[in-house]
């Protein structure tokens, strides 16, 4: 997901720069017995696999034979990986995506093989059979080469290489999900070409260059002993945090000829999209109206209601084929006829119908959480993975995604909250431009009401009402009404709780809060005359997710949050509370998180109230030490036991 606050932080990096001659790597197939006998990564214990080395080299050359395409790009890649255990086997399934809308782009010089030791200690090489290598057209713009290594086991080494012809690798990742022992990227271009290389990340980076005769510029970038970046709770896109380089050909600079700038501009991108057959021209297609939609809209004058009716109609009647794209690859008319299409086709249909109903609607290019952060300083539609509808009504705007079945029309979809999106409109309309997608009025809001009885063993029995509003409703119903079974299953599997029954309200009405009525038993504990129980039930806050001492990524919740718990607990006759946990009010130093706990006891019943409010959705990794300490105290308070005993 792309949040605007991260980009500037991402480009200020700490570089350890040394001009040096880089070491010679072993050739393809040159594997030693000692390498095959290595059993673990020496700088990251417990890793399932390790990149022993990977190397890429991008060549940029003058192509004098083609005035319309005066330069040639090529990237050579080689990767060698050590597998330590079964969890590392997933590294043996490889997919290499590449652009294919330009038919001159291809992957050549491909080779891959597995290395093992046999019982006698001999090195056995198993090549990847060319018959098991597949080139798949993902769509008419992109393809994918996929293959799986044979004979992979704990201790194996796998290695592959290939050349990407007529295209360069715009991004080179030194860091991956597994540790990388050594990574090197080389940029090789003549003086007539201007190439910009931008490093991102905070890990030490070695850099060197030379002016080779006949080449012009030969630069290399090296990292060593790079730790793997694993998933962390509430992280956004992993690729936003990986150590990497971005390489771009920016200009042609021939002697005696004015410099030709090759950098694209956002206005140029917008003009291209408006005129593109798979995008802008699809908004001019005449989509056949349907009698039932016309009937729904006939007596509706309110613009918001009209928008909601069209939004719900499209997402109810169109089936998403699972492919995310900004393009209508088969056309909106074909998708409308088949009632099935890509995200691009479905949302461009939605925009068509909204405009036809007289609403101010435009395409909005977005990058979802899984796709990563947009670099607004570098123009290119390849940074976006989805198009949504942007609708303006009065002084408010709405963002609609008809491939998603849960989010009401009033809410910005969660997977693009707190991101920068590009509104596509004709340049002379002055309506195009960047939009920051943020909703400060709605939050994750969960409320739990308990009405229970405690028994003489510390157990609780009774009813809980869970109410989920706004984004919390969306989070609990990620797949729509069908996920009710999934939701109730997760509640039933909560440790120490036995569910007698669950009833659900408003699961299919997105304008109302989701309500779960839960009848349950909760197991407590006892020690002699003292009985113990926790009231932190069904809040979703039972276990602290921030136990790790260090963190490599920012914490990203997508929206603000509010949790409330109100409980009424009746004690058995003849029992009384021991000293009550203190009422507290705890606040983060920046006041962004507030926790309140109150409790009182009178005439045999305990009354408790918890409230937790998050006033911001994002915490930088530099804030993590203080944030982690706050969470440690927070969960100690949330899970503090209430103690009662028999009256003396």
Account of the 3D structure:
The protein is mostly beta strands. The chain has 3 domains: 6-25 and 40-261, Immunoglobulin-like; 266-437, C8orf32 fold (Roll), CATH 3.10.620; 444-646, Jelly Rolls, CATH 2.60.120.1130. Helices cover 15% and strands 38% of the residues. It is built from 10 helices and 36 strands. The longest helix has 15 residues, at 303-317. It starts with 5 loop residues before the first helix and ends with a strand. The model is unreliable at 1-20 (pLDDT under 50).
What secondary-structure arrangement, pairings included, does this model have?
Layout: H1 6-11, H2 33-37, E1 49-62, E2 71-83, E3 93-99, E4 106-117, E5 123-127, E6 134-137, E7 142-148, E8 157-165, E9 171-173, E10 180-189, E11 193-200, E12 206-210, E13 217-226, E14 244-252, E15 260-261, H3 266-275, H4 291-297, H5 303-317, E16 319-320, H6 332-338, E17 340-341, H7 343-356, E18 360-366, E19 386-393, E20 396-400, E21 419-423, E22 433-437, E23 444-454, E24 460-469, H8 470-476, H9 484-492, E25 497-505, E26 514-522, E27 525-527, E28 530-533, E29 555-556, E30 561-570, E31 575-577, E32 584-587, E33 593-602, E34 605-614, E35 618-619, H10 624-638, E36 642-646
Which structural traits does this protein have?
3 domains; 36 strands; disordered N terminus; 8-stranded mixed β-sheet; 648 residues; 10 helices; C8orf32 fold; Immunoglobulin-like; single chain; Jelly Rolls; mainly beta
* CATH structural fold name of the largest domain: Immunoglobulin-like
Distance between the termini: 59 Å
Largest sheet: 8 strands, mixed
CATH class bucket of the largest domain: Mainly Beta
Individual helix count:
10
What global shape is seen? globular
Number of strands: 36
In percent, how much strand structure appears in the residues?
A: 35-45%
């Amino acid at each position: 997901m792309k949040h605007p606050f991260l980009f500037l932080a991402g480009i200020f990096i700490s570089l350890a720069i040394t001009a040096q001659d880089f070491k010679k790597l072993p050739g393809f197939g040159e594997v030693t017995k000692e390498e095959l006998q290595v059993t673990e990564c020496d700088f990251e214990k417990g890793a399932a696999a390790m990149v022993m080395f990977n190397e890429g080299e991008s060549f940029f050359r003058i192509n004098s034979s083609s005035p319309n395409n005066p330069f040639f790009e090529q990237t050579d890649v080689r990767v060698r990986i050590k597998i330590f255990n079964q969890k590392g086997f997933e590294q043996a399934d490889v997919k290499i995506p590449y652009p294919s809308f330009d038919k001159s782009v291809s992957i050549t010089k491909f080779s891959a093989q597995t290395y093992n030791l046999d019982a006698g200690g001999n090195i056995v090489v198993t090549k990847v059979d060319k018959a098991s290598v597949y080139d798949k057209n993902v769509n008419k713009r992109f393809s994918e080469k996929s293959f799986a290594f044979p004979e992979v086991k704990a201790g194996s080494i796998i290695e592959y290489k290939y050349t990407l012809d007529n295209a360069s690798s715009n991004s080179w990742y030194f860091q991956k999900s597994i540790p990388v022992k050594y990574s090197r990227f080389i940029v090789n271009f003549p003086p007539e070409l201007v190439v910009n290389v931008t490093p991102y990340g905070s890990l030490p980076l070695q850099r060197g260059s030379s002016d080779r005769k006949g080449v012009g510029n030969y630069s290399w970038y090296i990292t060593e002993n790079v730790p793997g970046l694993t998933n962390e709770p509430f992280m956004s896109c992993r690729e936003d945090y990986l150590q990497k380089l971005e390489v771009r050909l920016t200009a042609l600079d021939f002697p005696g000829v004015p410099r030709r700038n090759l950098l694209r501009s956002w206005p140029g991108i917008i003009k291209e999209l408006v005129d593109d057959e798979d995008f802008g021209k699809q908004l001019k297609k005449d989509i056949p109206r349907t009698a039932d939609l016309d009937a729904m809209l006939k007596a509706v004058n309110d613009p918001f209601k009209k928008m909601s009716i069209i939004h719900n109609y499209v997402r109810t009647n169109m089936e998403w084929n699972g492919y995310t794209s900004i393009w209508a690859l088969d056309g909106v008319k074909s998708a409308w006829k088949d009632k099935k299409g890509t995200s691009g086709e479905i949302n461009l249909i939605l925009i068509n119908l909204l405009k036809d109903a007289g609403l101010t609607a435009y395409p909005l290019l977005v990058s979802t959480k899984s796709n990563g952060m947009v670099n607004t300083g570098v123009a290119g539609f390849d940074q976006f993975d989805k198009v949504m509808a942007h609708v303006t009504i009065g002084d408010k705007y709405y963002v609609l995604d008809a491939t998603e079945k849960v989010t009401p029309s009033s809410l910005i979809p969660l997977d693009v909250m707190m991101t920068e999106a590009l509104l596509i409109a004709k340049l002379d309309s002055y309506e195009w431009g960047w939009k920051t997608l943020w909703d400060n009025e709605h939050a994750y809001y969960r409320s739990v009401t308990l009405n229970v009885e405690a028994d003489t063993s510390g157990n609780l029995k009774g009813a809980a009402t869970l109410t989920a509003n706004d984004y919390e409703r969306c989070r609990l119903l990620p797949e729509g009404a069908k996920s009710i079974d999934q939701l109730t299953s997760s509640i039933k599997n909560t440790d120490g709780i036995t569910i007698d029954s669950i009833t659900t309200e408003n699961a299919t009405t997105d304008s109302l809060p989701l309500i779960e009525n839960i009848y349950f038993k909760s197991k407590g504990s006892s020690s002699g005359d003292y009985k113990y129980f926790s009231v932190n039930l069904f809040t979703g806050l039972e276990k602290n997710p921030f136990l790790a001492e260090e963190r490599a990524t920012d914490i990203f919740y997508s929206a603000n949050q509010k949790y409330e718990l109100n409980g009424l607990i009746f004690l058995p006759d003849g029992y009384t509370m021991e000293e009550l946990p203190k009422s507290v009010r705890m606040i983060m130093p920046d006041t962004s998180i507030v926790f309140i706990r109150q409790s009182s006891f009178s005439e045999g019943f305990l009354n408790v109230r918890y409230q937790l409010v998050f006033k911001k959705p994002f915490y930088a990794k530099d804030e993590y030490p203080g944030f982690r300490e706050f969470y440690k105290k927070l969960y100690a308070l949330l899970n503090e036991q209430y103690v009662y005993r028999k009256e003396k």
